[in-house]
Specification:
With 207 residues, this protein is an alpha/beta fold. It is built from 7 helices and 6 strands; from the N terminus they run H-E-E-E-H-H-H-H-H-E-H-E-E. The strands form 2 sheets. It has a 4-stranded mixed beta sheet with strand order 3-2-4-5, covered by helices on one side.
């Protein structure tokens, strides 16, 4: 008797629903994620197991690093209105004029590190060009301590705008020499800023 071979139909799986879910997840992550903003002066922070998160407002960050053998300090400030008010106070202090357009652009900038007289040139640049620009750092010597004035006026502006005391964080390179860090700390303590944060990188705990 001849055998009859029956062709088995494996069937098919409808992947429409899974594709819809995949695209929904992709859309969600694209819309909710935040792109990393390029740093003007990237630093390799020291490692720590502390996981305290910095506030999203009322914060000024002083970034300390060394470029081509020269110590440089950069300044960053949270809040558009606070940044604009701080720029106005600095312009009044040093007799520099900034237009309303300059102030609006400055409010959207990240950290910077140039003397106040060169700041307009940085403001006029595109964000990508600012990262590539050779910013020499904010002066902080005894005869021209502009960093001290930035901190002072930022604290003053934050109180006027947000009615809160400004918090300060120091972000230093792990290989940075201690005297430079100490100099910045002394600058803060001269203004009675005795509490500040040190930004570190996360590392695993030792068991």
């Amino acid at each position: 008797m001849a055998k009859i071979k029956i062709n088995k139909n494996p069937g098919s799986t409808d992947m429409t629903a899974m594709c819809d879910v995949a695209f929904l997840l992709l859309t969600f992550f694209v819309m909710t994620s935040t792109a990393k903003i390029p740093e003007v002066m990237p630093v390799d922070t020291p490692a720590s197991t502390v996981q305290t998160k910095l506030p999203d407002s009322d914060l000024a960050t002083l970034t300390i690093g060394n470029v081509d053998g020269q110590d440089r300090v950069f300044f960053d400030l949270k809040g558009k209105d606070v940044r604009k008010k701080t720029l106005e106070l600095m312009a009044e202090k040093y007799g520099v004029t900034f237009s309303e357009e300059d102030k609006d652009k400055f409010a959207l900038m990240t950290d910077f590190g140039v003397p106040i007289g060169s700041l307009k040139q940085i403001i006029d640049m595109k964000s990508s060009d600012r990262v590539k620009a050779n910013q020499t750092g904010i002066p902080m010597d005894s005869l021209n301590n502009q960093l001290k004035e930035w901190v002072y006026n930022a604290r003053k502006a934050n109180i006027e705008v947000n009615d809160k005391e400004l918090q300060v964080a120091i972000k230093g390179d792990a290989k940075e020499q201690y005297p430079v860090i100490r100099k910045v700390m002394d600058l803060l303590q001269d203004q009675n800023v005795n509490t500040f944060s040190l930004i570190t990188g996360l590392r695993g705990k030792d068991f």
